[in-house]
Amino acid sequence: MELYLVRHGETESNLERRYQGWTESPLSDNGIRQAEQTGFFLAGEGIELLYCSDLKRAVNTAKVIGSSCGVQPEISPLLREINFGKWEGLTFNEIEAAWGKDISLWLDDPFRRSAPEGETLGQVCSRMYTFLENLDSTIPEGARIAAVSHGGSIRALLFRVLNLDNASFWDIKIDNASVSLIQKENGRFKVAYYNRTQHLESGNYSEEIIDAD
User: Fold this and answer.
1) Residue 108 vs residues 9, 30, 76, 90: alpha-carbon distances, Å
2) Catalytic residue among 2, 8, 10, 119, which?
3) Is 119 a catalytic residue?
């Protein structure tokens, strides 16, 4: 099995650097273009199945990708972004001004702490890994699948598969419309690469290769 994880295209809230979480925000013009370019890339990879978060920015990105790949996206709430609770729609500076102590505690231990009325990263890791395990138990061996999700959620799944220490979580970068590839070989999942953006801008190549050893 090969799972291509795609972050949705750029949104208006991304441009304003706001914490989106489960709050809806439309794709920007650039985000639509990014979705089109990602669709062309994935069509060349021979994608057979396509999943997406139920948040509109992921659904709309998936529809564009599906048009290029000739597949219809299937919605899964498991692929949602982390729920930021009362911090949603705010910038970091706005959050810091109102919840300075709380956001400091969250940044120190996001796996056990959450935004007020939000989710912990531990919870996001669990539901994203559940999505991966469900695929593994139902999808034919060797299938090529794409899943459109969100920056925090994709980072959480990569973190889990790579079995990193908690402090390394913030080292994983996931850009808008980037592609990350998880493969299953010899009975185990591995990350082949993450944050591939070559398909977006020929002059702005970025890809993190994981050493299989």
Assistant:
1) 29, 33, 30, 20
2) 8
3) no
CB 8 within 8 A of CB 148: yes
Q: At what angle do helices 29-44 and 56-69 cross, to 10 degrees?
A: 40
> Catalytic annotation on 81?
yes
Amino acid identity for residue 60 in this structure:
N
The one catalytic residue among 2, 10, 81, 119: 81
Encoding tokens for residue 143? 């299938």
The Cβ of residue 79 has, within 10 Å, a number of other Cβ atoms equal to: 24
Q: What angle do CA 39, 42, 43 make, to 5 degrees?
A: 80
pLDDT in tens, 82-138: 999 999 999 999 999 999 999 999 988 999 999 999 999 999 999 999 999 999 999
Its pTM stands at 0.92
